[in-house]
Amino acid sequence: MTDLNSKPEIDAPEGPAPATLEIVDIVEGDGAEAVASSTVNVHYLGVEYDTGDEFDSSWSRGQSINFPLQRLVAGWQQGIPGMRVGGRRKLTIPPELAYGPAGAGHHLSGKTLIFVIDLLGVS
């Protein structure tokens, strides 16, 4: 049973990183549905695909975040709509939908990223 009141754990992936966005519902929510124009309230954990190293986590800061979905990386913009409040979803995001190719200026450029996202609210 998945506990949405605690920080998720991400199992080490096996094999090569996917070339396209992968969306996996860990828990399907039954609340309001996120759409492309939503502002989302989420808890999330982000790790690098190749190393499994955590690079960011709202859980570690002790509070969720609110963001207009349209201001987030393309992988979130494509991977969150359709998700319902109360759900937990894993997104595996290739570089072109995250922070771009290696050398694009962000420390995560060129990396495939895995996020586990808990959708707490939409507006």
From TrEMBL:
Q: Which UniProt keywords apply?
A: Isomerase, Rotamase
Residue intervals of the PPIase FKBP-type domain? 37-123
Xref: InterPro entries: PPIase_dom_sf, PPIase_FKBP_dom
One Pfam match, given by its short name, reads FKBP_C
Say if the entry is tagged with keyword Isomerase: yes
Keyword Isomerase in record:
yes
* EC number, UniProt record: 5.2.1.8
**Name of the protein in its database record:** Peptidyl-prolyl cis-trans isomerase
Family to which the UniProt record says this protein belongs: Belongs to the FKBP-type PPIase family.
One function term, GO molecular function aspect: peptidyl-prolyl cis-trans isomerase activity
Q: Which reaction does it catalyse?
A: [protein]-peptidylproline (omega=180) = [protein]-peptidylproline (omega=0)
